[in-house]
From TrEMBL:
<feature type="domain" description="Type II secretion system protein GspF">
    <location>
        <begin position="140"/>
        <end position="259"/>
    </location>
</feature>
<feature type="transmembrane region" description="Helical">
    <location>
        <begin position="96"/>
        <end position="117"/>
    </location>
</feature>
<keyword id="KW-1003">Cell membrane</keyword>
<dbReference type="InterPro" id="IPR042094">
    <property type="entry name" value="T2SS_GspF_sf"/>
</dbReference>
<feature type="transmembrane region" description="Helical">
    <location>
        <begin position="66"/>
        <end position="84"/>
    </location>
</feature>
<dbReference type="Pfam" id="PF00482">
    <property type="entry name" value="T2SSF"/>
</dbReference>
<keyword id="KW-0812">Transmembrane</keyword>
<feature type="transmembrane region" description="Helical">
    <location>
        <begin position="279"/>
        <end position="299"/>
    </location>
</feature>
<dbReference type="InterPro" id="IPR018076">
    <property type="entry name" value="T2SS_GspF_dom"/>
</dbReference>
<keyword id="KW-0472">Membrane</keyword>
<dbReference type="GO" id="GO:0005886">
    <property type="term" value="C:plasma membrane"/>
</dbReference>
<feature type="transmembrane region" description="Helical">
    <location>
        <begin position="6"/>
        <end position="25"/>
    </location>
</feature>
<protein>
    <recommendedName>
        <fullName>Type II secretion system protein GspF domain-containing protein</fullName>
    </recommendedName>
</protein>
<feature type="transmembrane region" description="Helical">
    <location>
        <begin position="242"/>
        <end position="267"/>
    </location>
</feature>
<keyword id="KW-1133">Transmembrane helix</keyword>
Length: 307
């Protein structure tokens, strides 16, 4: 069997594994609902245990951060559900490649899966934040018009939730729902800022909070913010275009290097395991790891432009 065919089979199998895990998680969610609707005591007890575990994870510091990251990425999974999916995907990936790349190669694949999932979540949240930032001028104008018409901020948010598209619509609906159950405007807006952190949203949130406390010409303030947000949106687009080539090139180089290491073990099975047991190989692997880490860190520093 050729190397290309082996790679294709592994990729197809991995995709099927991801689909299976997602389907299983969806079925578990539906089973939870059915158990509470009319299930047996044992089923309800299992649901309660899973709910307790999910609540415990959410109360931890890293659980809150993971929950905010998932919410910002637009995913309905809880932290516990994501950890289950990540564990299943990591175990499945290692089981698939262990026979081809050995222990060290499997460890590398596991690290790549973990890092890849984290980057995937960050990418989804970044794209969602960018889309949301692009909608902020429209949101500011709707709120300014509603304030000029004498409507309260909550009423303006309800109008914006109906008129705007996702992701702004869903985020604003969540804020309106929190206000409906008695939560303060400041806390609801701060939580949205935690889900979708950005300077543009922070300015809008601070303006709404300050105006709700002290009063003043909210309509004119929001109109000025809308014009400023339009200018910042164009600037962000120009900066993103300027650094896109550098970022793509850096990720490509790192991907080629790691793929070369795994292909070396495919061509010569056990090569990585032998390198780990050899002092010279250990030095070479350690040096490669240091250079990879330093290069990845430098790439992030050089391409990070605050706007």
């Amino acid at each position: 069997m050729s190397l290309g065919l082996i790679t294709a089979v592994l990729l197809v199998t991995l995709v099927l594994a991801v689909v299976a895990v997602a389907t299983l998680a969806g079925n578990m969610s539906r089973e939870r609902e059915l158990a509470f609707a009319g299930g047996s005591n044992t089923e309800r007890r299992g649901v309660v245990v899973r709910g307790w575990l999910d609540g415990w994870v959410r109360r931890t510091t890293w659980g809150r951060r993971l929950g905010a990251l998932l919410a910002g990425a637009g995913l309905s999974w809880g932290p516990l559900g994501f950890l289950v999916r990540a564990g299943a995907l990591g175990a499945g990936s290692v089981a698939l490649v262990y026979g081809f790349v050995g222990k060290i190669g499997s460890a590398v694949v596991l690290v790549l899966v973990v890092v890849g999932l984290k980057k995937w979540l960050e990418y989804r949240r970044t794209k969602r934040i960018e889309h949301f930032i692009g909608q902020l001028p429209e949101l500011a104008r709707i709120l300014a018009n509603s304030a000029a018409a004498g409507l309260a901020v909550r009423r303006g948010l309800e109008l914006a939730a109906r008129e705007m598209e996702e992701p702004a619509s869903g985020e604003i609906e969540q804020v309106v729902g929190q206000l409906a159950v008695g939560q303060t405007l400041e806390k609801a807006m701060r939580e949205m800022q935690e889900r979708l952190p950005s300077r543009e949203l922070l300015v809008l949130v601070q303006t709404l909070v300050i105006q709700s406390r002290a009063g003043g010409a909210l309509g004119s303030a929001l109109s000025g913010i809308a014009a400023t947000l339009d200018e910042r949106r164009e600037l962000r687009r120009e900066v993103r275009t300027a650094v896109m080539g550098v970022v793509f090139g850096g990720y490509t180089v790192i991907g080629i290097a790691l793929s070369s290491v795994l292909l070396l073990n495919l061509i010569s099975p056990g090569a990585l395991d032998e390198m780990v047991t050899n002092p010279i190989g250990q030095v070479a692997l350690a040096a490669a790891g240091i250079f990879f880490t330093a290069g990845f860190w430098l790439m992030g520093k050089f391409t990070k432009v605050d706007v």
